[in-house]
Amino acid sequence: MCQNHGVAYIKPGVVEVQSIEYPKLALGDRKCEHGVILQIVSTNICGSDQHMVRGRTTAPAGLVLGHEITGLVIEAGRDVEFIKVGDLVSVPFNIACGRCRNCKVGQTGICLNVNPARPGAAYGYVDMGGWVGGQAEYVMVPYADFNLLKFPDKDQAMAKIRDLTLLSDIFPTGYHGAVTAGVGPGSIVYVAGAGPVGLACAASCHLLGAAVVIVGDMIPERLEQARSFGCETVDLRKDVALSEQIAAIVGVPEVDCAVDCVGFEARGHGSEAGTEHPATVLNAVMTVTRAGGAIGIPGLYVTGDPGAKDDAAKEGSLSIRIGLGWAKSHSFYTGQCPVMKYHRQLMNAILYDKIQIAKAVNVEVITLDKAPQGYQDFDKGAAKKFVIDPHGMIPN
Ligand SMILES: NC(=O)c1ccc[n+]([C@@H]2O[C@H](COP(=O)([O-])OP(=O)(O)OC[C@H]3O[C@@H](n4cnc5c(N)ncnc54)[C@H](O)[C@@H]3O)[C@@H](O)[C@H]2O)c1
Ligand SMILES: [Zn+2]
Ligand SMILES: [Zn+2]
């Protein structure tokens, strides 16, 4: 019997590397002959995991975490036709059947067949269908022919694995935020949040031809990281309105497009930066986006937040100034990023050196036993994207 180890959520603030079951081609009673078993080559820690680990969701103790997975196929189910043992593949964090009406139109983030509780599923995530997470040595990936992106050349892929590992989530997610905000050549963009998703979004805005990308956060190291690849920054600890800080950069107090890469754990601006104001970013982006502009919202908002300050927020009701957005005819785009819509194109952008995404988000590779430390450092606001290398396969 093969061994497996994975990162499990224990209680708020605590994760542990545990011995876990070796994956089967099944989820409970549900047979997954359409699935494969992967030996995991790289698996990243995400801000989305942090919401659970901070105790801000209803995640149960013992949940094996990890939805950002890249791996080597070591076993394929009876019904897998095109993916082969030995393929090196990127796994979209969304689990999708490829057969339902949403999958058929590319809306793989809200697949109807992979989660009995609601549309949409992911590995190792609360309310996302119970699929086992991949911050581990091995994992099962269902509907493998549909979900997996095979890298064309394994040696070339291993040489760029620090970049390619970001295709499972944050690079497509940041890019999707930019696309849905209408970013294109010459755009002036505000990106809220300089975590890995915000930084991936800012780099994507450059790839899409934006003229000016302004990134806002309250962590100086993260803002420094944004400046390292050509972004302008605003420090939200300052008691100067965001619109004024934007005017100081581009001459006018507004932008063409804005992207919320923060989500419901947002903190207030200026003197409020120490406390949480879950609707701050949504209201700020409506304030600074020009009339007729679009707003991408990859930042996560939840339907249940046990740690929220008031009863409304506990069930995801926030005080949003929708009248302002309505008056300015804003478009809003929410939800999981449908990774598959973008991952092949973004893989090519990496392989043909059109973007240095690992450098933009400052990838740091760690061993599996260092994962709990990675979670702690990330929670403290390290300007890094932690990538776990469970088998010591990533070259220096
Ligand atoms: N939609 C999707 O498919 C998808 C995929 C991946 C991640 N996410 C979500 O994207 C968000 C960002 O992920 P991450 O990994 O970068 O997380 P992160 O926690 O590392 O980054 C969030 C950043 O926002 C900053 N921040 C807090 N309040 C702010 C404010 N008012 N204005 C500007 N910045 C503020 C924080 O200081 C932090 O640096 C999370 O909510 C995550 O769950 C969504
Ligand atoms: Zn993620
Ligand atoms: Zn589906």
Architecture overview:
The structure is a single chain. This protein has 396 residues and is of the alpha/beta class. It has two domains: 5-169 and 338-388, Alpha-Beta Complex (Quinone Oxidoreductase, Chain A, domain 1), CATH 3.90.180.10; 173-334, NAD(P)-binding Rossmann-like Domain (Rossmann fold, 3-Layer(aba) Sandwich), CATH 3.40.50.720. The chain contains 15 helices and 17 strands. It has helices at residues 47-53, 101-104, 144-147, 154-159, 161-164, 170-180, 196-207, 220-227, 242-250, 280-288, 311-314, 322-327, 343-351, 357-361, 371-379; strands at residues 5-11, 14-19, 26-27, 30-31, 36-44, 69-76, 88-91, 138-141, 149-150, 188-192, 212-217, 232-235, 255-260, 289-296, 331-333, 363-366, 385-388. The strands form four sheets. Strands 5, 6, 7, 8, 9, 16 and 17 form a seven-stranded mixed beta sheet that branches. A six-stranded parallel beta sheet has the order 12-11-10-13-14-15, with helices on both faces. Strand 16, helix 15 and strand 17 (385-388) form a beta-alpha-beta unit. The longest helix is centred in the middle third of the chain and has 12 residues, at 196-207. The chain is globular. The two termini are 31 Å apart. The mean pLDDT is 97. The structure holds nicotinamide-adenine-dinucleotide and zinc ion (2 copies). One zinc ion binds next to helix 2. Residues 196-263 form the Alcohol dehydrogenase-like C-terminal domain. Keywords: Metal-binding, NAD, Oxidoreductase, Zinc. InterPro entries: ADH-like_C, ADH-like_N, ADH_Zn_CS, GroES-like_sf, HCHO_DH_non_GSH, NAD(P)-bd_dom_sf. It comes from Larkinella arboricola. Pfam families: ADH_N (PF08240), ADH_zinc_N (PF00107).
